[in-house]
C-alpha cells in the first residue's frame, strides 16, 4: 500500500539504529502505526530492519503491527539530510508525528563535518532543524506533532554566535553537548509559536539518565522502554500537552532562560535559516 493511501498514522522516528530510537520505533509499530524508521549509518540498515520486523511479529506483539519503512541519512552530511527531506516530502503528503531521537555525545576532541560545522552541533541541532523544515507541510496537513529529545543539561548551555562551531577557545564535551541541546529546545519552542496552525511541538528529557552520555550513566540500567513509551505517548494526538513545553519524565518543567527569550530564539532561527 502506498504512503498516500495508508489508513494508519505515519510516524517518523529518527535514529532508529540507536538504542532509544529503536525502542521508540518498536513502540510505534506495537501501537499499530506505520513507522518511518530513519537510521544514521547505512551499514545498520539491514540489521535494524530485521530486528524491527522480528519485534513486530514476536509472540505477544500487536495483532495488527504497523508497517515499517526504512530510510537513511547521515546527519553529519547535510546533503543527505536534504535529500531525505525531499524524498519524504514527495512521498508523504501527511505526516502525523516526527520524533527526533537521533543524537550523539560530543567527541573528546574537536571534530568538524565536511559541511564545516562542529559535529555535535550539526547532528543534534542543524540536521533535525533542516529535516523538520522539509516535512513541515506534511506535518501541518495532519495537524501533527514534533517531539524533540533534549536533555536537562540544556539549561547549562550557551549559544556563542561568535563561535558556534567551536573553532576557538577551550573545547569541553559537556559544554558542546549542552549547547546543541539548548539550540534544539529553542527550536522546539519557536516551532510551537511560529509554526503552522494546529502543529504541536514539545521537547522532552525522557528519563533520569543521559541516553547520549555513557560516561555519566550506565546504559545497562537505563529504562529504555519507559522512555520510548513516553516519546510515543507525547507524539499521540490524544495526549494533552502544553504546546512549546519542555517535559522531564512526562512532567512539564521549567525552560532555560534562553528558551523563554523570543529575541534569542529569533536570532538563532535567523542564523540557521541563512544556511
From TrEMBL:
Domain of life: Bacteria
GO molecular function, one term: oxidoreductase activity
Keywords for this protein: Oxidoreductase
Keyword Electron transport in annotation: no
InterPro entries with a match to the protein in the record: NAD(P)-bd_dom_sf (IPR036291), Sc_DH/Rdtase_CS (IPR020904), SDR_fam (IPR002347)
PROSITE patterns for the chain: ADH_SHORT
Family annotation (Pfam families): adh_short
Coiled-coil blocks: none
Entry similarity comment: Belongs to the short-chain dehydrogenases/reductases (SDR) family.
PANTHER family: PHOSPHATIDYLINOSITOL-GLYCAN BIOSYNTHESIS CLASS F PROTEIN, PHOSPHATIDYLINOSITOL-GLYCAN BIOSYNTHESIS CLASS F PROTEIN-RELATED
Protein name listed in UniProt: SDR family NAD(P)-dependent oxidoreductase
Amino acid at each position: 500500500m502506498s504512503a498516500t493511501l495508508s489508513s494508519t498514522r505515519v510516524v517518523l522516528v529518527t535514529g532508529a539504529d540507536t538504542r532509544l530510537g529503536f525502542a521508540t520505533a518498536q513502540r510505534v509499530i506495537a501501537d499499530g502505526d506505520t513507522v518511518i524508521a530513519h537510521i544514521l549509518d547505512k551499514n545498520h540498515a539491514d540489521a535494524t530492519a530485521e530486528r524491527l520486523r522480528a519485534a513486530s511479529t514476536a509472540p505477544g506483539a500487536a495483532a495488527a503491527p504497523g508497517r515499517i519503512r526504512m530510510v537513511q541519512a547521515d546527519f553529519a552530511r547535510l546533503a543527505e539530510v536534504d535529500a531525505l527531506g525531499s524524498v519524504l516530502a514527495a512521498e508523504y503528503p501527511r505526516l502525523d508525528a516526527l520524533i527526533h531521537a537521533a543524537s550523539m555525545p560530543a567527541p573528546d576532541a574537536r571534530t568538524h563535518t565536511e559541511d564545516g560545522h562542529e559535529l555535535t552541533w550539526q547532528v543534534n541541532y542543524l540536521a533535525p532543524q533542516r529535516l523538520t523544515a522539509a516535512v513541515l507541510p506534511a506535518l501541518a496537513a495532519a495537524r501533527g506533532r514534533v517531539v524533540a529529545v533534549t536533555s536537562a543539561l540544556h539549561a547549562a548551555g550557551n549559544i556563542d554566535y561568535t563561535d558556534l562551531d567551536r573553532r576557538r577557545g577551550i573545547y569541553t564535551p559537556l559544554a558542546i553537548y549542552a549547547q546543541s541541546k539548548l539550540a534544539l529546545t529553542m527550536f522546539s519552542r519557536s516551532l510551537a509559536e511560529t509554526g503552522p496552525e494546529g502543529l504541536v511541538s514539545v521537547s522532552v528529557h525522557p528519563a533520569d539518565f543521559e541516553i547520549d552520555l555513557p560516561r555519566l550513566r550506565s546504559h545497562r540500567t537505563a529504562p529504555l522502554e519507559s522512555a520510548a513509551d513516553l516519546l510515543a505517548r507525547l507524539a499521540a494526538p490524544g495526549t494533552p500537552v502544553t504546546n512549546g513545553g519542555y517535559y522531564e519524565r512526562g512532567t512539564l518543567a521549567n525552560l532555560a532562560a534562553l528558551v523563554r527569550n523570543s529575541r534569542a530564539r529569533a536570532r538563532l532561527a535567523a542564523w540557521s535559516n541563512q544556511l
